[in-house]
Amino acid sequence: MCGVIGVSGVSDAARVAYLGLYALQHRGQESAGIVAVDPVGRAKLHRAMGLVSDAFTEASLKELTGDVAIGHTRYSTAGSTVLANAQPYLVNYHAGPLSLAHNGNLTNANELRDKLVRDGALFVSTVDGEVIVHLIARSKAATIDGQVRDALEQVDGAYSLVISVGRTIYAAVDSRGFRPMVIGRLGSGLVVASESCALDLMGATVVRELLPGDFVKIDDGKILDLPRLAPRRVSRCVFELVYFSRPDSTIFGESVNHVRRELGRQLARHHPAPGADVVFSVPDSSNAMALGYSEESGIKLDHGLIRNHYVGRTFINPVQALRVQKVKIKFNPVRDVINGRSVVVIDDSLVRGTTSKGLVGMIKEAGAREVHFRLASPPITGPCHYGIATPTREELIASSHSVEEIRQYLGVDTLEYLTLGEMIDGAGRRNEWCHACFSGDYPTPVQLTLGQLRHSSPPVAIPL
Amino acid sequence: MCGVIGVSGVSDAARVAYLGLYALQHRGQESAGIVAVDPVGRAKLHRAMGLVSDAFTEASLKELTGDVAIGHTRYSTAGSTVLANAQPYLVNYHAGPLSLAHNGNLTNANELRDKLVRDGALFVSTVDGEVIVHLIARSKAATIDGQVRDALEQVDGAYSLVISVGRTIYAAVDSRGFRPMVIGRLGSGLVVASESCALDLMGATVVRELLPGDFVKIDDGKILDLPRLAPRRVSRCVFELVYFSRPDSTIFGESVNHVRRELGRQLARHHPAPGADVVFSVPDSSNAMALGYSEESGIKLDHGLIRNHYVGRTFINPVQALRVQKVKIKFNPVRDVINGRSVVVIDDSLVRGTTSKGLVGMIKEAGAREVHFRLASPPITGPCHYGIATPTREELIASSHSVEEIRQYLGVDTLEYLTLGEMIDGAGRRNEWCHACFSGDYPTPVQLTLGQLRHSSPPVAIPL
Amino acid sequence: MCGVIGVSGVSDAARVAYLGLYALQHRGQESAGIVAVDPVGRAKLHRAMGLVSDAFTEASLKELTGDVAIGHTRYSTAGSTVLANAQPYLVNYHAGPLSLAHNGNLTNANELRDKLVRDGALFVSTVDGEVIVHLIARSKAATIDGQVRDALEQVDGAYSLVISVGRTIYAAVDSRGFRPMVIGRLGSGLVVASESCALDLMGATVVRELLPGDFVKIDDGKILDLPRLAPRRVSRCVFELVYFSRPDSTIFGESVNHVRRELGRQLARHHPAPGADVVFSVPDSSNAMALGYSEESGIKLDHGLIRNHYVGRTFINPVQALRVQKVKIKFNPVRDVINGRSVVVIDDSLVRGTTSKGLVGMIKEAGAREVHFRLASPPITGPCHYGIATPTREELIASSHSVEEIRQYLGVDTLEYLTLGEMIDGAGRRNEWCHACFSGDYPTPVQLTLGQLRHSSPPVAIPL
Amino acid sequence: MCGVIGVSGVSDAARVAYLGLYALQHRGQESAGIVAVDPVGRAKLHRAMGLVSDAFTEASLKELTGDVAIGHTRYSTAGSTVLANAQPYLVNYHAGPLSLAHNGNLTNANELRDKLVRDGALFVSTVDGEVIVHLIARSKAATIDGQVRDALEQVDGAYSLVISVGRTIYAAVDSRGFRPMVIGRLGSGLVVASESCALDLMGATVVRELLPGDFVKIDDGKILDLPRLAPRRVSRCVFELVYFSRPDSTIFGESVNHVRRELGRQLARHHPAPGADVVFSVPDSSNAMALGYSEESGIKLDHGLIRNHYVGRTFINPVQALRVQKVKIKFNPVRDVINGRSVVVIDDSLVRGTTSKGLVGMIKEAGAREVHFRLASPPITGPCHYGIATPTREELIASSHSVEEIRQYLGVDTLEYLTLGEMIDGAGRRNEWCHACFSGDYPTPVQLTLGQLRHSSPPVAIPL
């Protein structure tokens, strides 16, 4: 998962993009980058590993002059944590400087890449988005609009992206619309962002969300709608609402906070915990769900777990040395809330189960009489091929274990998940969700090895 | 404010202290340091500016060998952000290596320092705690116990401190008991910490809180109670419960989470907001208060403000450049919760008023119909002379403005504070609180310039 | 100017390359990089700005596993001091990882680049060598040997380069042979380097120098001579002997130290300074010349200038603030040697004249009665288009001033240069030198804007 | 060994001190520091590990405002490479900020320190100079002049030091005069430095060298000679001339360059190498000696060894891994000069013998027919107790081996040293040298463990 930003016609655009990336920090902490384009069309790039606030200094922002900018913040995925994979890309092609910031995952990147390489293209990273840049540069289309469209029509999978060519910005969302993207107005200029919360911090107001297949061009403070991309069955990622997006964002037309509260209510309706004394969330992602559960069930809400917010930073080794479970670094139980009580613990989802197991252990040590674990989404049984860094099927506990087995593993008294139907009801009863990781119903053809660029033949270049 | 840790008889004591400091990070982000003492009595110090996780690396922890350690994390106060002021101090005196980690503020530090300097003492920092080290080194008492007592009897004000002399650890709380301190057991060893939440992360179990005037010696896994310090009227800092300590700690015999919830209930009882649609907190410090308010009032709880937890890190200039209020970087309103509603906003306290004004502005922009601001403590009218870095009286809005004036400044429909009595009732109806910053009733004689070491004469050495 | 290294069939090849680069540090201080290839053909790159010893750490060398490596150290040239321009390049092309380290300057890089860009090639740097990589990747030749040859036959100008494709290393010197390159044996493996001094430090023994047009392939400890590149008139860079190469190297079949001593003798023969008391060098590049001058003339040699060898490091601003001439930071006169004497100062060459003027000022302040300046090469009247970062013609003092005018500018009593013929006699009376910067006799067609990639159209991407 | 600087009455004094330290870099590369005092008497300190150019940035120099400054650069000695030992010291005592920069070694530091500690003094470093600061602060003398004198009269051994008290600078050289120190004028202000070469770079002109026992006070651009310290037999360190000082300095009234040339001549007169073809130095310290040898003997001078000047920087591990002798990193032989010849190698002194053995190996590998090693000083048989970091007696090869044994160890054909008398003749036939390391004739009573502060009892504090 990643966050992308575009800014056009706003002075000091890189600083505005910086604020936007800052608000999208939850979408990726591995690296951050900004390309800025100045009035004569010169583009400069700065990118670095780490958080947005570490990646940029006053000095680096000063270098990024201009009123056009695009930005990117990248999620950490195993094996490719190298600067060469940080975005945006910036290259010179025949129409001038070309830069790209991509959120999503292309499902046919390997075939396209293999073909391009056979034709003499040189790849400098192992990231799927790089193929788009090559496809644009090699397009025979007469116009730049046509070259970009040419590229987008060849790639399949999930993409919500921003491209700059010279001083023009293009924004597009694939026709299935997996990932959110929104356009806003800032003074006489325009901004694009992965989520509306970034518009708030940039000081922009929402113009509209980009719909599946939307392909727009932004220039001189004007949005020009280019012909839409070929339509496909819409499949919005429900996990964005359940977990990924920030609660203060509105995506796919829904308030994330509102949906999460509703998911909590659904849990209470269909998966009650009669006799429980108190309900609390695993903070912060399931706060709204716990609140909904409490409202609907009448079970008192409390704060049973305190989260140490300094954990975002790299944590060094000593913990392992002391055999302190990582979860203990991040969460601490409030004994006063838990001791002697029957507690309902609300979490948004359960992936490997290791963190939850650690949490349950802490809750029981703090004196819980009974622990009722409730999940505001169904069991995750398959990987995401559209940009969320879920682990392989083997690591997903629900891919090979029954709910009862998981309950025993966690050591809780009861364990219940929302069903697919209950979740979709909570998310807004629409027939346009991607819930492949829960249901196995993938909206695109899926190759054997996706998600990650195939390291095809043994020889491969790794710019560290 | 600061956090202090002591560890004795635990292998790899510095790593245990590191975890303890990590849990006390909220008590100070300016600098962190650890002294470790090895089996033959050699003491080593590492200290650095910044957060605990930045100040220490695997390499620096490896250097800190030994089974005895003390640690310190320091709160940022204006004008003295220099490494020389980071604690612990470590010096050689005639009985061997002596180190000190101090939480609190000595009210007679200036006189003591002036006298020591006249007698040839060399000071290397501008921090009050340094006088204690000199007093110990110059004591004529025959035993080390006596030398430490000698020093403690000469200083006045607030101190909860840990001292190591050779391989022995001393812990003491001044007789008024301003600041918390707790002892725990970890395997066959012992630990000391400012708050119980640090014991949780270190894996220790509570032995007991240190009471006002307690003076103990820890050696070879045993606690030896030394004769108590001369008694004074107890005056526990009520602000530790209202704001400073972590909700998962138990201090002064009270669960912080429980007290805060009760303060929220007090607010609802005495300062209702009839007709309001929703109540929410300024996260995270007033979460429990908002929950208590909602329970007692029946007004629905929601999450109206989302906090960006990446803000802990240094934030660079661009924000100012863009005239983005700092508060916007830290908080974002949830429009869906606020728009068209009459909202009750709960905060723990109000200092300068600037942050609250910014928040109110954001809440109103998000469409609030009415804003009712409620504070879970009385107006702050005076500075703290006992270790909390409140601003000067001039900067405290309530020292020169009426509640009605503050209401107008904030731009809210109603503004109400807990009264002193209501707060004390909520905190546990005991007659032993220091509430000087609210009431002006200072438990010690107060000099004109306190809190901060007087920069007496123009010439002063500043080791950067 | 740059230094290049290749290593094949030597365990821990990156560390060997590191030593080689270290010995070639004088050929470039802007950036350093190494690509290592492991036994299964995976290539990894590490590059960084600054000196070799700063660019690499134990950790970065540990990552660079394998028995094949190429390395590069880059000279600082204005306007392009960015990491993206650091070499080696490393890309994936259809035959696997391809890396390049280039010393020299291609005179037709702009046309080739323009054409490649029109054909959809994406450039990530502003350095001329990048075209070679694209040409290889786009070659239609059936074999890798053929693809590399294809590329080399299209580029014109100066190149002494090392290329790795998979685990094979190619080394080539353009047919005019501007820059030196030597092959050595290290155990059962082979190494390639810009100068023989690097072989000494790597512990290798010389196999042979590469001659102009040599094109070899190194694999499994064997050198395979590929058919030579199309012959051109040989034009070895005489400035390598005069100034650039290290005195302990043997290049173009000549001992650099020996040639410089001979140049000093030539100076004494043809440009005596009768009545002078002492002769000294501007250390260290003209040490051997001063020695030769003293021997031939009988004038006593001494050390009149001491060089501060800590100057290599970045020197910060304060100097300017104090109006200390930069030259004073680097050199200090020995008053005892100079005071009251008539001195002969020997330098290798004179470019802008500013440093020499500063030196002369210092020498006169130290009490010199007379100053006779002697240069062991002719006046430099034109830029180098073959890889030496001489300034533009406008900045070359001898391009627009007579020797008498320069003498007056420097403020010396006499100023004499070697003539072209005298220099060539000293360098070994061969008819195969490039002396274009002295004579204007450029061995290749020269475009208007060379030496530096033309920033053709205003829009250009600058990855910082 | 260390370098010290004082500046008074010069605007931007810290930058001037920075230049001075830069010129004294050869006297110490472990750490560097500057204290600056502003017009109202506030003193600020910045110090850091490493070279002067690394220790200071534009930002740190900007902080050091004022027209008075003292600076220090410290030589690396084993076991104490920690920031706490970096100078200058800066403390507040009753008369204001007091700072100290010390060059030399106090022979009674341990007794003084033990006594001070018994009296309650707190030491923050393990360096001998710290006792002086405590002695000043505890002096009962009525005036500051008296307090400083009080301290100086109690310490024994070698010291050339600069002290600032408020805005006044004191400079003193112990009565035996082991180490050099010189005063210069810079505009209307004054500077003090360890060697005259620092005056050159600061742009100052020599006023006078401080003589043994000189004790001066500098204030408002005026030098006030305070009564001289009690006289002792003068014993100037001859090793400063042989090796330590820069050749462009004049110390003890002698040009270092001139003395070294004369030492080379002495070598040639008394230790000829008949039949040798060429003579060369181990650069750069013995360059002048080789020149003198060549002149006197008529044997041709050449450059047989090239020194890599980038070596000053930290060199990382790989070398060991490759078993490359460290000496090879630093020096490379010029085969052309050496091959087939009988060579005379001139070095200033021989300490452990390991470097020389490595050099000889390289010279022989380069084809030398015969190697005649000549040393411009006698065998070093004992440690220095006055500030030069010679190794212990056990490590000094000449303390336990005869010249013939050393010759065999080095593997040379002949090995000859200057005798004590020949060296003193060369240094200027005066009866006031300290040559204890050659002769065992120590000018002060010498304790068993000197040179290094005794780590008396096991418990000791080590601020890392």
The chain-level mean pLDDT of chain A equals 90
* Assembly state of the chains shown: homotetramer
- Characterize the biggest β-sheet of chain A: 7 strands, antiparallel
Number of strands of chain A: 25
Query: Can you give the helix content of chain A as a percent range?
Result: 25-40%
Tally of domains of chain A: 2
Q: Which outline of chain A best applies?
A: elongated
Largest interface: A-B, 60 and 60 residues
CATH class of the largest domain in chain A equals Alpha Beta
DSSP summary: helix tally of chain A: 18
Weakly predicted, low-confidence segments of chain A: 313-323, 448-459
Strand content of chain A is 25-35%
CATH superfamily annotation of the largest domain in chain A: Aminohydrolase, N-terminal nucleophile (Ntn) domain
